[in-house]
Structures are given as C-alpha cells and as structure tokens.
Amino acid sequence: xxxxxxxxxxxxxxxxxxxxxxxxxxxxxxxxxxxxxxxxxxxxxxxxxxxxxxxxxxxxxxxxxxxxxxxxxxxxxxxxxxxxxxxxxxxxxxxxxxxxxxxxxxxxxxxxxxxxxxxxxxxxxxxxxxxxxxxxxxxxxxxxxxxxxxxxxxxxxxxxxxxxxxxxxxxxxxxxxxxxxxxxxxxxxxxxxxxxxxx
Length: 199
Hints:
Blueprint: H1 2-6, H2 11-17, E1 34-37, E2 43-45, H3 47-61, E3 69-73, H4 79-89, E4 92-95, E5 116-119, H5 126-135, E6 139-143, E7 154-157, H6 163-180, H7 194-197
Parallel strand pairs: 3-4, 3-5, 5-6, 6-7
Antiparallel strand pairs: 1-2
Helix pairs in contact: 2-6, 3-6, 4-6
C-alpha cells in the first residue's frame, strides 16, 4: 500500500493506459525492465520499474532549462502528447519527419540549439539521435521491449506506440518537471489534465 502512494500516479492509471504492454519481440537491452512474457507472446513491463524510470527522468531533465530540451517524435501517435508537453513546459519539439542538419548546421534557416533530447522511439527517431551524437548531447528515449538502446543515455521502458501510454508519459513528465523547476508546488497546481495529452 505504501508503494502505491509513492508512485507518480496510481497503478490503475498505468494499467489503463497500456504503458506496460510491450511487443512480441524483446531485446536483451530491456530484459531488466520486463516482468513476464504472456501466453499470447507479448512481453510486459514491470509497472514499478516504469514508474521509477519516469521519476528518474524527471530528476535528470530537471537539471536543464525548458528551452534547452528538444523532443522528437516521428510516429503520429506521439504528436499530440509532445505538443501539449511543449505548451506546458516550453520545451522545443520536432514532430513528424526529422529535418536533416537542424542541430548540426548553423547556416540553416531552421537551425536550433538544444542541450538534451527526448525521443519517442530510438528506431523511428534514429536520425535525430544521430544528430544528438554528432553534437554530443544526451538522449532520453522511450523504449519498447523490441528496441535496442545503442546511443541512448537514459531509457524510459514503456509502450512507445500506444497513444494513451505516450499521453500518460508526457503528462507525468510535464507535471513532474514543473514541480522540479519550482513552477508549481504540488500536483494539484498543475493546470493540465491527462485527457489533454490523449487524442
């Protein structure tokens, strides 16, 4: 019971979002976070591990200013949560196709600077990670059971394909970071709702 109260949100909310449901393929990189493989072949994340990693990600990202954070997501299921996260935190975003050289070529009109990157999937967002590597900034990645984590500095193990799962992750990151930065005192002061982050 005590553990439940210490979680960022109730385990029921985690389960409802499907944040724990992985894929039928699992890599050795995510083994430590996997609770079991179901009879239908889907691997399932340990909810407690997911919660701890999101809490750690908030602490890690909290060392950066909002304008130094860049969030990238190519897959459409993450566009809405990323945009709402940006609205609440002031972080920069790139949704959809990642423009080549946007971080590495200062002569481009759309050139931007960042000190840390969040990606929704290390596979679909590999071009963004490539640029982050080139300029030497850390990468926080939401990783499903089928992901490899080469060139990822910090892993958030979670279903990175489901809209509700991604909505919940960015809801928790937004609320947590505003507290971490001292912009709100507690959860009740957060102006966003979980529904805002979902389609």
